[in-house]
Amino acid sequence: MPEPRPAALRTLLRRRDFRFFFTGQTVSLLGTAMSPVALAFAVLNASHDKAGDLGVVLTAHMIPMLAFLLVGGATADRFARRTVLVWANLGSGLTQGAVAALLLTGRYSLLLVAVLELLNGILAAFTTPALRGFVPELVERHQIQQANALLSSVRNATRIFGPSLSGVLVVAIGSGPAIAFDAATYVFAAICLRLLSTTSHPGASKATRTAILTDIREGWHRFRGFRWVWTVSATFCVMNLVQTGTWQILGPELTKRTSGAAAWGLVLSARGVGLLLMSTLLTRLTIRHFLAAGQLMSVLIAVPLLVLGAGLHAPYLIAAAFIAGLGSAIASVSWDTSLQEHVPPQALSRVCSFDDLLSYAAIPVGQLSVGPLASALGGFRVATVAGVIYVAAAFFPLAFKPVRSLTHTAHPAPAA
Question: Which of 63, 118, 187, 330 has the highest count of CB atoms within 10 angstroms of its CB?
Fold first, then answer.
């Protein structure tokens, strides 16, 4: 049963290192939420082959991020995660700053922007596993859920307000300053990380360190050794395969057919509100079998797909998007918390990197296949089938006892 934990949140925010980390991440997440809108308008305004150039830039970021995720995970387990994060944030600030400089000086070049986004993608591959492994170093084990929920609340809030703020800045002063702000947020986050007093220990001592490839192989064995981890990760792969492309590509088109183009913005806003509400609620609640609850609630993410497939109008789709936001938030927080509580710290970043790779790799496949499938079968039918597959995939891990029985650390361990 859920139970309120308001005191835990106050205790968490009194921790000096977590406050610094939280402040840096808040500013950085705002910049990250603003950047895609600014970059998209910058490329579209400056290029001749508008859609083609934007596709090249986005691909230049995604492919190296996927290619280097396992190296990033092994690096974060090998060296102090704080050090990895400081350098990765500084590097991201430098690359985004260079993109901003090209735009501010009117020297846009597709090749240069693509190379800079490629470097940014590589740096993101080091940042993500290190961040997921770093949170447990900042808080007590029983505070991990509250920390993740608080960070998720900020992330979801920036996703709601960041794009709108970026759009206003782009219209008022151009894309260059908006991307320059993103660059500055990375530097600010690096400074906040550098100010932490926490000593972040690498997973292995210098005497026992092996080659990176050996570390990656060991991480794969660790990943496979946790049945509940690879079972849920495999279902995330299927869920992302059928959901992301369908929602991002067919969602706007089908909504326009049934309710008009303006309705899509309301749908996205409703989903964002659901995300923010649930992640905020999770800062005050704990659930004993958190992973099972998160997996069960993830079924709600399929509701908008089924509503789209049924051709229902905007009010139903807006309500469905809000419900999906609730499910998405609890699924995300419960998954990160479960990994951080039950995977050994010295292998956590590598296990997370395999999870991320398996999840992210399915996204471009789904994005590329949804268009041809919609042409052959019809968009509404594809959305319905995607929703049904998503429901089946979300329920599948609950058939396994390790997933159902994994216990969340709701309270501090008793004193020895």
Answer: 330
CA 41 to each of CA 101, 159, 222, 392: distance values in angstroms, whole numbers, following the listed order? 16, 17, 43, 38
User: What are the structural domains of the chain?
Assistant: 1-197 (1.20.1250.20), 219-410 (1.20.1250.20)
Asked if residues 95 and 87 have their Cβ atoms less than 8 Å apart, the reply is no
Q: For residue 117, which of 191, 173, 53, 212 has the smallest C-alpha distance?
A: 53
Cβ–Cβ < 8 Å for 124, 92: yes
Q: Which residues on neighbouring strands pair with residue 286, listed in sequence order?
A: 3
- Side chain identity at 119, as an amino acid letter? L
Give me the DSSP letters along 176-234.
Answer: HHHHHHHHHHHHHHHHHHHT-------SS-GGG---HHHHHHHHHHHHHH-HHHHHHHH
Closest CA to 25 of 248, 227, 230, 188: 188
Confidence of residue 197 (pLDDT cuts 50, 70, 90): confident
Q: Are 77 and 133 in contact (CB under 8 A)?
A: yes
Closest CA to 9 of 284, 209, 194: 284
Task: Render pLDDT for 361-405 as a digit per residue (tens, 0 to 9).
Answer: 888 888 888 888 988 999 899 999 999 999 999 999 999 999 999
Gap between the Cα atoms of 239 and 298, Å rounded: 10
The Cα 52–Cα 350 span in angstroms is 35
Instruction: Enter the DSSP assignment of 122.
Output: H
- Residues whose CB is less than 8 angstroms from the CB of residue 109 and which lie 6 or more positions away in sequence, other chains included: 102
Spacing of C-alpha 282 from chain mean position: 17
Tens digit of each residue's pLDDT (9 = 90 or more) over 18-58:
889 999 999 988 888 888 778 877 777 776 655 567 777 87
Residues belonging to the chain = 416
pLDDT in tens, 332-348: 999 999 999 999 999 99
pLDDT in tens, 126-177: 999 999 999 998 888 888 888 899 898 888 888 888 777 777 777 788 788 8
